[in-house]
Amino acid sequence: MKAIIPLAGIGSRLKPHTRTQPKSLIPLAGKPILGHIMDRLVEAGVNDFVFVIGYLGDRIEQYITENYGQYKSTFVIQTLGRGIGHAVWLARESFAEGERMLIVLGDTIFEADLATVLAEGGNALGVKKVEDPRQFGVAELDEAGLIARLSEKPVIPKSNLALVGLYAIEDTRALFACLEYNIQNEIRTQNEYHLTDALQCMIAQGVAFRTFAVDSWFDCGKKDIILQTNRNLLRQVDQQQFAGFHKGNIIISPVHIAVSAKVENSIIGPDVSIGEGAVISRSVVKNSIIGQGAELTNAILEDSLVGSDSVLMGAASSLNIGDSAEINLRNS
């Protein structure tokens, strides 16, 4: 099984962090978003990957090479942000005729029995019920439980089954043909070539799609969801490894503190991730992510994202600080 992971988006909703690093490399519970995705795919038996990269793509390639170099990886460049459908179409030459594929969006952390889905074969799309499906692709089912129709970000949804960014495709010939047709005929939604439109093209041609349930799913495109996902992932971390950090500090689980981080006279947690080489002194940090190499002194932080190599001195409540920023809130 070969997986495509589109990663060329610029992550505009997560600025300023995505000005200096790809969204997929933002760390959660001690590992980048992409690392969590890769671990789940490898666990499901996937060992061949196609990464569609663009903005800051060299950092993604470096991360994959250094951390998942034992698996086969191909990197495809998408120079223009023209949508997920266009990204998958660019990867067409990486697939043999009729070769099955798994498409996984690069900002989606999920919990699902993917190994069973792949073993069953056929075409299957991961779905989850949501309160407001207008921001997602939406699946409508027929009486037999198969997908009757797909629509992308409908104004008036006829279903609350959202597509979560997991697509197992067996009829890849039909998929590439529909993508080709949409691109040649400029068929777009919200000015992009959406994968949803190509899948609907397949359904209209009689290709059958079933759904599979996703236990949990986080579309890591906003600060609040990033922090929520970090909280959930921290609850899966062995907290015993942080026992040595208690001297001079109060550590409230769950937390992740990188081995090379230095924490002094501080209260950390709950729900905090601290990156490699970070230095935190005389501070209180709760429900936050502190990037690698960041320095915090006399800070009070909650619900915050602090980028790598940033420096923060003085009290604050909730911040969203990009990489290499320097903020001094102390009285002069």
Can you offer a commentary on this structure?
The protein has 332 residues and is α/β, with parallel strands linked by helices. It folds into two domains: 2-232, Spore Coat Polysaccharide Biosynthesis Protein SpsA, Chain A (Alpha-Beta Complex); 240-328, UDP N-Acetylglucosamine Acyltransferase, domain 1 (3 Solenoid), CATH 2.160.10.10. It is built from seven helices and 25 strands. A hairpin with a 2-residue loop joins strand 2 and strand 3 (31-32). The N and C termini lie far apart (60 Å). The model is unreliable at 11-18 (pLDDT under 50).
> What percent of residues adopt helix (DSSP H or I)?
10-25%
What is the CATH third-level topology name of the largest domain?
Spore Coat Polysaccharide Biosynthesis Protein SpsA, Chain A
What proportion strand? 25-35%
Structural class: alpha/beta
- Unreliable parts: 11-18
Distance between the termini: 60 Å
Tell me the domain tally: 2
**Largest sheet, strands/sense/barrel:** 9 strands, mixed
Q: Count of helices?
A: 7
How do you describe this structure in short?
The chain is an alpha/beta fold. Helix content is 21%, strand content 31%. A hairpin with a 5-residue loop joins strand 9 (137-141) and strand 10 (147-152).
Structure characteristics:
about 325 residues, 7-stranded parallel sheet, Spore Coat Polysaccharide Biosynthesis Protein SpsA, Chain A, 25 strands, alpha/beta, UDP N-Acetylglucosamine Acyltransferase, domain 1
